[in-house]
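Appendix C reproduces, verbatim, an entry submitted by the partner laboratory led by Prof. M.T., so that reviewers can inspect both the input and the predicted structure.
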Amino acid sequence: MISVNNVTLAYGKRVLFDEVNINFTKGNCYGVIGANGAGKSTFLKIISGEIEPNKGIVSITPGERMAVLSQNQFGFDEETVLNTVMMGHKKMWAIMHEKDALYMKEDFSEADGIKAGELEEQFGEMGGYTAESDAATFLSELGVKDELHSLLMKDIAANLKVRVLLAQALFGNPDILLLDEPTNNLDVETIAWLENFLADYQNIVLVVSHDRHFLDAVCTHVADVDKAKIKVYTGNYSFWYESSQLAARQASDKNKKAEDKKKDLLEFIARFSANASKSKQATSRKKALDKLVFEDITASNRKYPGIIFKPEREAGNDILKVENLSKSVDGKMFFSKLNFDLHKTDKIAILSKDPMALTMFFEIISGREKADTGKYEWGTTITTAYLPNDNTEFFEGSKLNLMDWLRQYVPPQTKDVDEDFLRGFLGKMLFTGDEILKKTNVLSGGEKVRCMLSKMMLQNPNVLSLDEPTNHLDLESIIAFNDSMLNFPGVVILTTHDHQFMQTVANRIIEITPKGMIDKLMTYDEYLADEKVKETREQLYS
């Protein structure tokens, strides 16, 4: 068990945590949620001992081993891939080297023999004799091929390093597992593997993630970081979100009787409890929900941005025509033989195993890059707005305040552009009061994305191109963005790592590869499950 007692942490006048008291118990997976800057990652560092609080203590049941997902991709550059994984079990790794050093002694004594025997026993109890094969299995299941296991970490690709470090954290069945954004840079197959692994995990897991689908798949509880406090709620992220929204609606309904409110809440709990029995976390989650009482459900204090796109005109029948489009860089083919038309009802998810191919595609159809062959043509009625993966150029070197920055992007035909007009767009993105005078060169990643969305809303587009739109956003902004795309009357072209965003928005899937493309009128989950699609993908990527 982890016990957090009166933990307080402040940096100057900024108080991150104020006398936090909370327990985390075995058999549960806790999704740590909160707005950007609330202190989620910092809290995990306090638990791990990396950061010491100003006040209070964190205690762990004696003898329990903790593993932390390392964020330093260069910390093990001189180690082999296989050794890096085994180093996750620090005590076992130390014992292995200690006993090996004894055996290498030229004057090996009887006392050394007794000590070596004791170490061998401890080593065996820790699973040391199967450590290499266990580590190799983890790596293979995470998509790191056998021929890479003996290479040094510095000699493998960055996206594979992430997987090795994840295997390191999972190795040896730690009693406590701390994971900060574990799905970053993982493909959908690897994320699914991790979901299944954590769903069956019997120890304590604390995970920070902005992926709602992932949190729903693995979490039995939500630990909400808000206003310098942390409160634990039973259920996964969707349960927390929907229950808090229900509680907020009930709080605003002053005419509804208390008995009716209680009945609605109990029915809500019962419905989620029934659904939990069908999930991967069936046993532990359903047991937790069965114990839940309606008083545990409270309204959230979260604020959600208003992401509202209003097309100035309806798109005509001709949206976008792509003919024989291909692109390569330095001899590497990103995609080829792309041929498709977009239709008025399309909300298209663009997929590829290569993230650079996706960005290159969006840059080309946005007129910022040129294709090697082929062409594309937008319809005459189309007004596009583009959210790039990298927005650096829009802010680099700029010392404008938010108001003046946004003023640059007001379309020429827009009239009556005064301070209140611009404040309205910035206010929808939660920039209020004097915040609009903040300089753009000091904005966080999430604030920059919200500024870009204000810019896009000004354009009143009927087609949206979105390259990883959820990057840097907190869960509240992701939900608001997701809902906005569901209600948007125009065409959407997007790629995202957010499973739920992709599944709920897209009605057509196009996968671009070096050898051609796949084009299917179906949802994302249907696409992933389709056996014929799987066969075609193997052929195109082979």
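The chain has a mean pLDDT of 90. Additional entries are available on request from the coordinating office.
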